[in-house]
């Protein structure tokens, strides 16, 4: 069960503010909250900040569901059979940037510096957040041959769906199960379905993070009360 917002403890790190407080928080606090739930993304900040400012939510689950619906509406508007006929390929870029903010599964892609980028910038693109590192822990070790297979599938996926990155709610599943799902989605060859599935996965991840962060805050509050 999610912790009541009144019991969320800023002493717990990382910390989600009370859901009712979001409309009154400064932009920096709102973007930090979004980064905890999703991954750092200026495009998501631009989409979500007006929503957080103008709507009230009863829970983080409600907030995440609202953002999911907004992203699905954008996907429907820029690609697929019901897309706006005036939409250009560039119209998909903000959505794809949001989805690609999640890191690759498994070992990071080796950096390939370009003349107009320095090595540090390239490395930062593959750096994992604390949440992603924990979620992917079982995918980043083990048999090197399996790691190579996973890296090859990542490459194949990104070639099949330019601008997208494979996003899935790992939820403790093994590398073999994840690779089978990657193969299924590559073979399906449906970019619009990939956008929808990636949006749902991203929001499933966010909901799981919210529940874990709220549980951590509640435990910290209870520990403080008993001290």
Automatic annotation (TrEMBL):
Oxo-4-hydroxy-4-carboxy-5-ureidoimidazoline decarboxylase domain span: 24-210
Keyword Manganese appears in the UniProt entry: no
UniProt entry keywords in alphabetical sequence: Purine metabolism
A Pfam family: OHCU_decarbox
Bias-annotated ranges (Low complexity): 129-139
Biased composition (Acidic residues): 118-128
Region ranges (Disordered): 101-143
One biological process term in Gene Ontology: purine nucleobase metabolic process
Presence of keyword Cell inner membrane: no
InterPro entries named among the record's database cross-references: OHCU_decarboxylase, OHCU_decarboxylase_sf
Protein name as it appears in the record: Oxo-4-hydroxy-4-carboxy-5-ureidoimidazoline decarboxylase
Species the sequence originates in: Lasiosphaeria ovina
